[in-house]
Write a structure and sequence with these properties.
By secondary structure, the chain is α/β, with parallel strands linked by helices. It is 34% helix and 20% strand. Helix 3 (43-57) packs antiparallel against helix 7 (123-133).
Length: 280
């Protein structure tokens, strides 16, 4: 089988035609009902329609399995701290925000929308987010279309680079191998205000034993706690900063291991790693 055919097969394996009972989280349903004003009986059809549009842009596994509806940040131990800091005027960037589900959850939970920035490589994901949440005329968040590797992107503007208090990076760093992750992590760290308390937090795919894997989405380095802390120690040494790193591994639920077609694309070693990286 050719590499292209293998990739197409893998992509098809993680595409679920319709969500199972648990694939639209309760928090996402509540957000779509109370924030977006969508009737409960219309949510599934609305989500499927919008998801299908997003899948055509790029077939990420989180889209195929409806996991893009998980805000993620609201499950971090630091979530209440993040809300409080935003309410006190600090700023957060949602890195690789996709359809902006995290942004909307923050706003629904009381964070000022104007203190939140969303950024994605794909402008169509941002547009789809407005359709998913029906808030184009009310959401005051500023969205940026930018490539973290582009030195001339909007992330390098004077009101962003070195001016952000917090960055949420959900399912972002794991998209690359180890050396590229270091490069990306340094670029993200450069967006922070260089002072104590500035923070990067998030979650991503990890593993019991840290290792680099090649999958249909590319080369991914899957950290465990030890390798993640070691990487950030090296990054801090290179940048001249000291970071305090908290990280933990958690088991994935069953639907992360198999699609509705019973195709297994994770192993029993796979975990999700949750982390916060603070400047000292």
């Amino acid at each position: 089988m050719s590499a292209a055919a293998s990739m197409e097969q893998a992509r098809a394996a993680w595409f679920d035609e319709r969500p199972s009972e648990g694939q639209i989280p309760h928090a996402a349903r509540r957000l779509l009902e109370t924030y977006s004003g969508i009737a409960p009986e219309e949510i599934v059809e609305h989500v499927v329609k919008v998801r299908n549009e997003a899948w055509k842009i790029f077939p990420y596994p989180c889209l195929g399995q409806f996991r893009f509806l998980e805000a993620g940040l609201d499950q971090c131990a630091e979530y209440n701290e993040v809300i409080d800091r935003l309410q006190r005027g600090q700023r957060l960037l949602d890195m690789a925000c996709c359809v902006g589900q995290t942004v909307r959850q923050l706003v629904a939970d009381g964070a000022p929308a104007q203190n939140i920035y969303g950024c994605d490589l794909q402008p169509d994901f941002i547009e789809i987010g407005y359709r998913l949440f029906k808030d184009r005329d009310k959401l005051e968040t500023k969205f940026l279309v930018a490539d973290i590797f582009d030195p001339g992107s909007a992330l390098q503007d004077s009101d962003i680079r070195g001016k952000v208090d917090m960055v949420y990076a959900g399912s972002f760093f794991h998209l690359w191998g180890l050396e590229k992750q270091k490069e990306v992590s340094k670029a993200v760290a450069s967006l922070l205000i260089p002072q104590s308390g500035s923070m990067i937090l998030g979650r991503q795919i990890g593993a019991v034993e840290a290792a680099e894997k090649t999958s249909a989405t590319g080369t991914m380095f899957r950290h465990n706690v030890e390798s993640f802390k070691k990487m950030w120690k090296e990054i801090g040494d290179d940048l001249g900063f000291a970071f305090t790193v908290e990280a933990s591994l958690k088991k994935l639920t069953g639907d992360h291991f198999e699609s509705q077609t019973n195709h297994q694309f994770q192993t029993n070693e796979t975990r999700r790693i949750w982390f916060s990286v603070r400047m000292q």
